[in-house]
Amino acid sequence: MLSSAQMAFRPWNPPAKLGRALILALVCAALLPLQSCSPGNSLYIAGNRAEKAELRELFKLLSSSKLDPVERFAAVRRVSSVLVRNREYGRLGLLLTGLVSERPEDPYTAYYLFAAAYVYDLQDSAPMAALYYDRIVKNYPDLEVDGSSLHFQCLKRLIETVPAPERRIEYYKDLIARFPSRVDMGSMLFLLGKEYEKVGEWDLAVKTYAKFLPYFGSSIPGYPDAFQYARNVVDFYNSPKDWTYEDLDVLVAKVKAALAAGDPYKLRNSRAKVNFFAMSWHQDETDVNSQVLFDFTEFMSGGRIYSAETLDRMSGARDAYLRTWGWSERISTWYLYFRKIYFPADPEIHGRWEWAGIYFGEKMK
Questions:
Q1: Element of type H or E holding 337
Q2: Of 56, 163, 216, 235, which is least surrounded by CB within 10 A?
Q3: Which DSSP helix (H) or strand (E) runs through 354?
């Protein structure tokens, strides 16, 4: 798949930074009369002697009324290549936007806008480039250049640069609907779900995560635990959540009473029924091996289980730990872990407490 750089101006080598003078040139160019954008204008002649000679010939060709759109497109790409090689970005931006203004009916207008957007990208002006990318997607038919779709490249670039989640949702949906064979569908669905979360659309987020789950093999940069996260959200959303408590002290007292009575059934009823984990301190909670259907019966056969009078001092406003010991297991000390539930989808559940898991052994220093 070609990148937007490869599509726009092959074989360009874009620089990392540009000076103020070049940015100013683009701004000033926008204020010039449209007639100054005429292809024959000497404003665009730049480079060494051979390049200037080539540009003059190309502009003579572009000024011909007999030139068809395909020939004009080829000539503009050659001019663009020369101007980019000489880092004449202001002149190139003016040329491209001038062509769009003068010939809005040209079938390659979308390409000229795409190339103009890329010029802004070269100048680290992503917000300005995004205006062009968005305009192409919404107002112009798609165009295949060098085997790649302009709309596809625009949507990918918009997702990378536009910060507003509402707009990113729109772009993700467009990519998924229009280019399912060109994207990693698992990655697109998970990232769309994250955007829905940001705007508080939890019903849509959960539905999107549910669609993502069959793509458990997808690798999503920045989200190594994407599958486990999505499954946890979906499972919790669809659960009755009848194990949650408004008051942490009430929940802890109930667990302590079950421990003192040696009643594994009451313990089981007190723990979270979704995403409950049991692991050592060095494991990760999202490790699939840590999330189990935990049965307390086999660990309570050695006598009474004891618990500390108070919560451990490492407990805080959102997490709490209760030290217990006497379990009939090689590791007899367990820390029961309680946490506040983060679930804005349901205000009645959000902020309540659950017994979420167990850490085996003495806590890590």
A1: strand 333-340
A2: 163
A3: strand 353-360
83's tokens = 């101007």
- Residue-wise pLDDT for 60-79, tens only, equals 888 877 888 999 899 999 99
Whether the pLDDT of residue 148 is over 50: the answer is yes
Cα 358 from chain centroid? 32
Whose CA is closest to 115, among 147, 153, 67? Answer: 153
| Cβ atoms of 112 and 99 closer than 8 Å | yes
Q: How many CB atoms lie within 10 A of CB 365?
A: 3
Strand-strand pairing, 277-280 and 333-340 = unpaired
The 277-280 sheet, strands edge to edge: 277-280, 353-360, 333-340, 319-325, 306-307
Closest CA to 71 of 107, 102, 100: 107
Task: Tell me the H-state helices in 86-108.
Answer: 89-102
| Domain 248-360, CATH | 3.10.450
Largest CA distance in the chain: 98
What residues contact residue 284 under an 8 Å CB cut-off, 6+ apart? Answer: 225, 290
Buried b (16+ CB within 10 A) or exposed e, 310-334: ebeeeeeeeebbbbbebbeeeeebb
Calculate ∠ Cα 5-160-145, nearest 5°. Answer: 35
DSSP-assigned letter for residue 291: B
Residue with tokens 């759109």: 69
Give 167: exposed, middle or buried? Use CB within 10 Å, 0-12, 13-18, 19+. middle
Q: Which residues contact 267 (CB under 8 A, 6 or more apart)?
A: 255, 258, 259, 296
Tell me: the pLDDT tens digits for 177-223? Answer: 999 999 999 999 999 999 999 999 999 999 999 999 999 888 899 99
Q: How many CB atoms lie within 10 A of CB 285?
A: 16
